[in-house]
Amino acid sequence: MVQFRYLPIQTGERATVGESALSRRNVLRRVGVRVGLTLAGAALAGCSSAKTTPTAVSADSAALRPDGDPLALLKDGNKRFVAGVMQHPNQDAARRKAIAAGQDPDAVVFCCVDSRISPVIVFDRGLGDLFEIRVAAQDYDGLIEGSVEYGPFAQRTPLIVVMGHQHCGAVTATVNALESGKMPAANIDKIVTSLQPAYIAAKAANPTADRDALIDATVRQQTALAVAALNADPLLKAGVDAKKLTIAGAYFSLDTGVVSWL
User: Fold this and answer.
1) Among the listed ranges 126-140, 166-180, 219-233, which one has the minimum average pLDDT value?
2) Domains and CATH numbers, the chain
3) What sign results for the dihedral spanned by CA atoms 196, 169, 108, 31?
4) Are 9 and 225 spatial neighbours (Cβ–Cβ below 8 Å)?
5) How far apart are alpha carbons 239 and 252 in whole angstroms?
6) pTM, entire model
7) In this prediction, what percent of the chain has a pLDDT beyond 70?
8) Beta bridge partners of residue 249, listed in sequence order
9) What secondary structure does DSSP assign to the chain, as a single string?
10) Would you say residue 224 has pLDDT above 60?
11) Residue 141's pLDDT band (cuts 50, 70, 90)
């Protein structure tokens, strides 16, 4: 089995690639996203009678919820998925009616757009259980940051999972482009530029890796970079420091269905 090594990268180093684009993203994050989240939080507070009241997360543990530890629920659900004994909880008409007026998800899952991945299925959950944020190779920018922040900020969701996956098409395109020096056409080149820091880190940590191993290492580095960026976000960091929020990295194997935790 190939052992991947990780090259520590400060989140600030990401600004060396696509600096102007990232500057625009930062403006969006600091202004539009923050204002939008503040207004969303105020609106939700003012409409509390129209939604279920989220259960506050314990000050000494981000894991306590009415239905159990959110991370344990995901791990148990994935075990059922792998074993083929899924329970399909919260997927009936009663659940649909129960959450129509409001939501209180257990976790935010930030993952790739790949059609072979569905967090609700992979973790054997149901309606209203997960916020799903999906973008190619779970690339992280200002607009995505606002979406990720929404769960913990407006709904007090206590867990964020950043999940990369095996055979990622976006990462494969990035590695192929950067190894060959031939950038893809249309807007795919923007994905390559965004994922380049993960590729550089993977290449430096695994200089002798073959193409498939380098792709897999880049997926893991991209996940690690996204986790680091989320942990550095002031809004989310406050929740982590108060032990009201957990941010975890994960890797989904398409071959086995197993979610491993990074």
Assistant:
1) 126-140
2) 18-261 (3.40.1050.10)
3) positive
4) yes
5) 26
6) 0.76
7) 73
8) 162
9) -PPP------GGGGGGSSHHHHHHHHHIIIIIIHHHHHHHHHHHHHTGGGSPPPPPPPTT-TT--TT--HHHHHHHHHHHHHHT----TT-SHHHHHHTTT----SEEEEE---TT--HHHHTT--TTSEEEEE-GGG---HHHHHHHHHHHHHH---EEEEEEETT-HHHHHHHHHHHHT---STTHHHHHHHHHHHHHHHHHH-TT--HHHHHHHHHHHHHHHHHHHHHHSHHHHHHHHTTS-EEEEEEE-TTT-PEEE-
10) yes
11) low
pLDDT at 207 over 70: yes
Share of the chain above pLDDT 90, in %: 59
Dihedral sign from CA coordinates of 162, 154, 89, 100? negative
Calpha distance 240→248 (Å, rounded): 11
pLDDT tens per residue, range 52-95: 333 333 333 333 455 679 999 999 999 999 999 999 999 999 99
Query: What is the residue whose two structure tokens read 């259960």?
Result: 55
CB distance 4 to 206 below 8 Å: yes
Q: Is the pLDDT of residue 38 over 70?
A: no
Distance CA 186, CA 189 (A): 7
Nearest to 90 by CA among 132, 53, 129: 129
Cα angle 67, 159, 195 (rounded to 5 degrees) comes to: 145
Tell me which residue has tokens 């060396």.
16
**What are the structure tokens assigned to 59, written together?**
């000050």
CA distance 125 to 81: 10
Per-residue pLDDT band for 44 (boundaries 50, 70, 90) equals very low
